[in-house]
Amino acid sequence: MRSRPRPTIREVARLAGVSHQTVSRYLKTDDTISKALQQRIATAIAQLDYRPNLVARAMRSRKTGRLAFLLPPGTAISSLEMLTGAKTEAHSAGYVVEVVTLDGSPDTRTDRVLELADSGLFEGLVSLTALPDVSSRRDPQGPPIIVAPHYDEHMRSVGELADAPAVEEFITRLADQGHRRFVHLAGDYVHMSARRRREVYIETIERLGLDSYGVIDCDWLAQRARQAILDLPEGSGVTAVIAANDVLAVGAISGAYLRGWLVPGDLSVTGWDDNPVAAAMTPAVTTVSVDYQSLGRRAVSRLLATLRGEEAPESREPVSAAIWRESTGPAPTT
């Protein structure tokens, strides 16, 4: 049995004896329509059991209450925290956030975003990965597209997320505590964050006139970090380890204990990422905390400002901060 076609706004208008534009104004709660006409339209809607096509209306008006949060494929835990911040900011303004994964080449990602913008499903879009030529290709009458490139196409940190000012802070403060010879346990250089931490380590050591035993590549593997400490020759003079993340820091502490060294009595160790396990162990690891939720809030606040026709807010607050804990202390006295 075929179902009866859904009644249209024009049928409502004919039954009420008004134009379909008047019915449309009524549905938008236009108070300029007389009470008599409002009653006739309401009666016609009830008789026909008319239900507005909300999707079509949203596509026409661009008012959907929905924002798109665009991410490259991957499993970075940081993206979940960033999404939490984005949702908080969006919800406070009456919007919901939907996540869309962007894969493929840079041009393919841009094409996909432009399709989403033209779909009428979203009032605005935020991309956390770069979109080549999106500004020049987007419809100026379409929803705004904000690009905040915190990840590359493989969900690896780039830009502000890959900066490493805390490495300089670690070395400077440890030098003030008497440390003179350092070693850096580096991550996988396919990650910009690993490259930047190595670069800042080398630059800071040279600038402060300190000594470096060198940079040891550990590829984010704790066992390599542990072996690196076990392989340090007697009399190396190393009293401080700058590890590229907390996993490597924990590996370094394990290697120190296997050698009978105290941390921080004989060796100070720093990490990165504020890993909960590294924070809970003894000694708790000196590390870097990154406020990913703040980055999500910032991105959405830029989009909301654009939607309102306002100047996008600027924040100069750093997103990362050193957290000094038990794994660092003064250099050992000889």
Give your account of this protein's structure.
By secondary structure, the protein is of the alpha/beta class. The protein has three domains: 9-52, lambda repressor-like DNA-binding domains (434 Repressor (Amino-terminal Domain)); 62-155, Rossmann fold (3-Layer(aba) Sandwich); 161-291, Rossmann fold (3-Layer(aba) Sandwich), CATH 3.40.50. The chain has helices spanning 9-16, 20-27, 35-48, 54-61, 77-92, 106-118, 134-137, 165-176, 192-208, 222-230, 246-258, 276-280, 292-307; strands at residues 66-71, 96-101, 124-129, 145-151, 181-186, 211-217, 240-243, 268-270, 287-290, 320-323. Helix 7 links the parallel strand 3 and strand 4. Helix 1 (9-16) crosses helix 2 (20-27). The longest helix is centred in the middle third of the chain and has 17 residues, at 192-208. It starts with 8 loop residues before the first helix and ends in an 11-residue tail after the last strand.
